[in-house]
Amino acid sequence: MKQLMIATSNAHKVNEFEALLKPLGYEVKSLLDLAEPLEIEENGSTFEENALIKASAVHKIVKMPVIADDSGLCVNAMDGAPGIYSARFMGYDTDYDIKNREILAQVQNSEDKGAQFVCAIAYVESETLQHVFTGVVEGKIHDQILGEHGFGYDPIFYYPPFHTTLANVSESLKNEVSHRSRACAKLIAYLEDQ
Ligand code: IMP
Predict the structure, then answer these.
(1) Which CATH code fits 2-192?
(2) What CA–CA distances, in Å, run from 99 to 89, 113, 119?
(3) I need a labelling partner for 8 at 20 to 30 A (CA). Which of 19, 52, 60, 168 fits?
């Protein structure tokens, strides 16, 4: 069986990727399987760079194909912020209710309410065989916090085709259109061709 490492310690992400990759014949490992905890500094300036930095760093250590992802919310009226700083915006441990209120306040008087969720997934098989797949979902910053599903910035992300926020639909419906599933679909199409 082919082995593949997901460069994350987030068990939820591991399960998500495992569900997608097992049917393709991959045995999925993660940073949780390593004896020592691994901290990688994400010092790139784009989602793609950060995903590649993470995947390459882990590949150097584990010497097997590695997948790493980086994602976040880009708000037009905030010049693309919080972007790659989405998790760190206003502090890692700050409640998303506070982060979301701050974004609503910053966007309130702007004509352009546009926003995108972006996800970059890097696949590093060797030092020379590396690819990055990007998925984007276009929406708007809503005028209020709405919905109980999902996580992070979902309650303020209005998705026009659903006529509501991504936190106000089921997780499975969100996953049909999400930036992560779009990037994943590209990765899977690539792996299926291998
Ligand atoms: P990471 O890619 O796991 O580092 O996620 C970065 C951050 O982007 C998360 O902590 C969230 O703040 C935000 N984010 C990424 N994807 C989503 C999403 O699907 N919904 C809401 N927030 C998200």
Answers:
(1) 3.90.950.10
(2) 7, 17, 20
(3) 168
Asked if the model's pLDDT at residue 119 lies above 90, the reply is: yes
H-state helical runs in 37-145: 47-62, 96-107
Report the alpha-carbon distance of residue 51 to residue 53 in Å, rounded. Answer: 6
- Please pick, among 70, 93, 97, 112, the residue that the annotation labels catalytic: 70
Q: Is the C-beta atom of 117 inside 6 A of ligand 1?
A: yes
Cα of 152 from ligand 1 centre, angstroms: 6
The pTM score is 0.94
Distance CA 55, CA 58 (A): 5
Percent of the chain, pLDDT > 70? 100
For a ligand 1 pocket test, name from 74, 121, 153 the mutation site with the most ligand atoms within 8 angstroms of its C-beta.
153
Sequence spans of domains, the chain: 2-192
Task: Report the alpha-carbon distance of residue 84 to residue 90 in Å, rounded.
Answer: 13
